[in-house]
Write a structure and sequence with these properties.
The structure is a homodimer. By secondary structure, the first copy, chain A, is α/β, with parallel strands linked by helices. The first copy, chain A, is built from nine helices and 17 strands. In chain A, helix 1 crosses helix 2 and helix 1 (about 140-150) packs across helix 8 (about 285-305).
Chain lengths: ~350, ~350
C-alpha cells in the first residue's frame, strides 16, 4: 500500500493589476492529497511532473476572462499551467504507458490526472538531452525562434538584424540562426552576464540596454534590416528610427507592456516612411509548415553543441509564483525552468 | 513683344513646429518677373501651371533637412512643390512641344522653366476628363489607393474593411475598390458632408469620428479584416482592438501625427495576439508592378462615372499656404486642388 501523499499545486488566486505577486496572484496549495496506486483514472493518464516552463506570455493569461486573447485566461481557484515535461506513472489510455515521457500543457502541480490528452504527447529523447530542453530550445521557445525566423525574416547575407531579449530562449536561438544566415547581429539584454552569453553565441554587437541607450547603439551599428521584437515600447521606437528601407519587423512579444497596460509607441510613421513590414504571429499557426524541418534540423545541432542554449533552473514547484514574477521583471539569467522532480 | 509679367511663387520660409502657418511657414512672393517670349530656356521647357495638388504628406517636407525621410525636405527660400498639371508655353526639348500638357512635380509658381524633365511627362486626355483628375483620382492619390489595395489587402468577399479619411482622394477610391471586391465597408471622416459622400460611393457604414467614437462603431460593425490607415494614433489603436485574427493593416499615412510630433499608439500587443500583418509602403515602389493595370482600368471607369471622385477646388496660386493648412486640419471637403490657370 502506497501512502496517501500531498499533491502540491499552484493556484491562480487573483488578477494582478501590475506585476504578479506571489502569494496573492498565485498561491501554493497543499490541501489536496493523492493515492498514486488507487486514485481512479477513468480512462486517463496519471503524470508525475518533472520540468515546467515559465515564459513571458503567461502574464497574458492572468487577466479578466472577459478579455479575449489568443491564450485562454487562467481560472481563479484552479491551477495555473503551461508547457512541461512529465513521466507517466499509470495509464488507462493505450497511447500512454508507465515510464513514457510526455510533453505538452501541464498543470502546475506534482501529479496530474489527464483525461483529455489532446495537448500532451509522448516524446523520445534519442540524443539523450536533458528533459528541460524539451520546454526550451527544443520546445515552444525554440520553435518560435526557428519558425518565425524562417517565415518572416527574409534574411539575406550581409544584412543587419537587431534582437531584443537576446539572452532568452527565443532570442538566443534567433541570434544563432541569423549568424548562420550571414547577417550582422546586434543583441540586447538587461545584465552583463546576459550580454556575455550573447557574445558567446556569436552576436557581433551585444549591449546592456540598462546602461547603454538602444537608440545610440542602433544609430552607430545600423541601419537594421530585421528587428526581432520581444519588447515593444521605447525599444520598438528605437528600432523604427533605425530601420532600413524595406525592413522586416517580427513581432514576437512585448514584455515592456505586459505589466503596465501598454507602453506607448510614437514612431510608427516610419512604417510608411521606410516601407516597413511588421508581422505579428502565434507560433501554433506556423507548426504545420515548419515542424518537420525543425525536428530534423535543430535537435542534432543542440546535441552536438553547434547550437548553444542556456537555462536558469529553479528547484521546487512551490517557487513557480516567484519564477513567474522574475521572468516578468527579467531577473532570470536565461530560459526559466522549474525543476519539480528528477524522475 | 510680350510684357514682362510678375511670376508669383510660394516660397518655403521657415520650418513649423506645429501646424504650418501661411505667411510664416510659406510666403507668396511677387518679386520675380518673367518675359515669356524671350526668357532663356537653355534647352529646357517653359511650363504654365494649371492645377496643383495639395496633399497631407507635404507636411513631412516642412522639416529640418537633416532629418532623413522618403521625400526630400523643402528648401528655405525656394519654392514649395508637389504634383501638378501644366501646359507647355515654349520648349527647346524635342520631347515637349508647345501646347502639350504635362504632369509631374511642379514648383508652386505661375511659370516654371524645367531643364531637368525627369519628373514630368506629357499626358494625353482621351476621355476628356478635367485636368485636375490627373492629380487626384488618376494621379498619385488614386494610384496609391489602387496599387496598395491590390498589393496588400488580400481582400476576400465577405470580409470587412475599415477606411479612415474615407472621403479623401485615397480613401474614397479604396471604398469603391473594396465594394467591388465584395467587402463590407466601414468609412470614417470628420464632417457630415464627408460622411454623406462616403455613403454615396457605397460604404455600408459611414460615421463622423468627431461625433461618434471609432471604437464603438468598430465593436458593433467589426471585427475588421483590413484596415486602411491614413490617421495613426488613437484611430489605429481602435482598429488594432477591433482586428480579426490575420488582419491586414495598410499603413498609408498618419495625419494625426504630422503636426504633433507623434500621437502614441498603445495597442500593438494585438499585432501578435491577433497575428496582424502591417505593411508600410511608398507608392513609387509599386508603380513598376501596377501602373499598366491602373491606366487600363481606372480612367475609363472614371469617365463613365462608375468610379466617383470629388474635388475641393481653391482658386489662385496665392492661396496654396492656406490650402496646405486646411488639408492638415482636415478642413477641405474633398481632394484639395489649387486651380492656378484655365489654360
Amino acid at each position: 500500500m502506497t501512502p496517501i501523499i500531498i499533491n502540491g499545486r499552484i493556484l491562480f488566486n487573483s488578477v494582478p493589476t501590475g506585476f504578479p505577486e506571489p502569494g496573492k496572484t498565485t498561491i501554493y496549495d497543499t490541501t489536496q492529497t493523492i493515492d498514486l496506486e488507487s486514485v481512479a483514472l477513468d480512462g486517463g493518464v496519471l503524470i508525475k511532473v518533472l520540468e515546467l516552463s515559465v515564459d513571458p506570455y503567461m502574464r497574458g493569461r492572468m487577466r479578466d476572462p472577459s478579455v479575449k486573447s489568443y491564450a485562454p485566461a487562467f481560472v481563479i481557484g484552479e491551477p495555473t499551467y503551461g508547457f512541461g515535461v512529465g513521466v507517466v506513472v499509470r495509464s488507462e489510455n493505450p497511447a500512454f504507458k508507465t515510464g513514457d515521457h510526455v510533453y505538452g500543457i501541464l498543470e502546475h502541480q506534482h501529479y496530474i490526472i489527464k483525461k483529455d490528452v489532446s495537448r500532451i504527447k509522448v516524446i523520445t529523447n534519442p540524443n539523450n538531452l536533458p528533459w528541460s530542453t524539451f520546454i526550451g530550445v527544443l520546445g515552444m521557445p525554440g520553435r518560435t525562434a526557428y519558425m518565425a525566423w524562417k517565415e518572416f525574416s527574409k534574411a539575406k547575407p550581409g544584412e543587419t538584424v537587431f534582437v531584443s531579449t537576446a539572452a532568452g530562449p527565443v532570442g538566443s536561438l534567433v541570434i544563432q540562426l541569423a549568424k548562420k544566415d550571414g547577417l550582422k547581429v546586434i543583441g540586447s539584454a538587461g545584465s552583463e552576464e546576459k550580454v556575455q552569453f550573447i557574445k558567446e553565441i556569436g552576436a557581433d554587437v551585444a549591449f546592456n540596454y540598462k546602461t547603454t541607450k538602444t537608440a545610440e547603439v542602433l544609430e552607430k551599428e545600423g541601419p537594421i534590416d530585421v528587428y526581432w521584437d520581444n519588447v515593444g515600447g521605447a525599444t520598438l521606437d528605437a528600432a523604427l528610427e533605425a530601420a532600413s528601407k524595406g525592413a522586416r519587423f517580427i513581432e514576437c512579444g512585448m514584455i515592456s507592456t505586459y505589466n503596465t497596460g501598454g507602453e506607448p509607441v510614437f514612431k510608427l510613421q516610419q512604417m510608411f516612411r521606410r516601407s516597413i513590414t511588421m508581422s505579428g504571429f502565434i507560433v501554433d499557426d506556423l507548426y504545420p509548415k515548419w515542424t518537420e524541418e525543425f525536428e530534423a534540423t535543430i535537435p542534432p545541432k543542440v546535441a552536438s553543441g553547434e547550437i548553444k542554449y542556456r537555462e536558469d533552473i529553479y528547484r521546487g514547484l512551490e517557487n513557480v509564483g516567484d519564477v513567474i514574477l522574475a521572468v516578468q521583471k527579467g531577473l532570470n539569467k536565461a530560459k526559466a525552468v522549474v525543476h519539480v522532480a528528477d524522475a
